Amino acid sequence: MINKIIENLIQGNRRFESGSITPIQYTQEDFLSFDKEQHPSVAVLTCSDSRLSPNIVFDQKLGELFVIQNAGAFLDDTTAASLSFAVEVLKCSTVIVMGHTHCGAVSAAHAHTIPTTTLASPVHQIERVIGSSESVTKAVATWTDYTYQKTCDLSFIKENNVVVAQAIYDIGSGHVDFIQDM
Ligand SMILES: [Zn+2]
């Protein structure tokens, strides 16, 4: 479901990918307001990849996005706790689950390799979800959809009527593709 908040992110991404991002200057007043409180309307769960910064790819200022990033964009207990803070305390009404092309964690799972010992368990979890995907691109789509469905099933997401959307960020073009429900 595309609401006004997501439409705003789509517009911001169009500015970003076309090289016309909004010149951002922060004033003392901005910092004074940041010092007191925050009012993001949307939370973004995505990967830690250094080529992906939600505030930049959606052309949003500080204070506008509540961002949760970890390698592979996992929805584990810690991530769910962060999301619950965004929804139940900060009153974010929308959550974006965003995978990306060339994701190292998904690529490792697709190739059945383990980058580090500590990453073994998460990578095996991705392997189980993606099965025998024919390509990394397909595997990223499957993994992102899985995380999206899990996010939709969280009790506080349902109880607060939060809009959840899934998207794939294309590292090579800067484009964010929002995936519509079937
Ligand atoms: Zn990644």
UniProtKB/TrEMBL annotation:
The keyword Lipoprotein appears for this protein: no
GO molecular function, one term: zinc ion binding
Protein species of origin: Erysipelothrix inopinata
InterPro entries in UniProt: Carbonic_anhydrase, Carbonic_anhydrase_CS, Carbonic_anhydrase_sf
E.C. number(s) listed in UniProt: 4.2.1.1
Family (UniProt): Belongs to the beta-class carbonic anhydrase family.
Cofactor binding annotation: Binds 1 zinc ion per subunit.
Positions contributing to Zn(2+) binding: C47, D49, H100, C103
Pfam families: Pro_CA
This protein's name: carbonic anhydrase
Span of the signal peptide: none
Record has Lyase as a keyword: yes
Catalytic activity: hydrogencarbonate + H(+) = CO2 + H2O
Lineage: superkingdom: Bacteria
Top class in the EC scheme: lyase
Cofactor(s) of this protein: Zn(2+)
PROSITE patterns registered for this protein in UniProt: PROK_CO2_ANHYDRASE_1
BP GO terms, sorted: carbon utilization
Alphabetic keyword roster: Lyase, Metal-binding, Zinc
Listed transmembrane segments: none
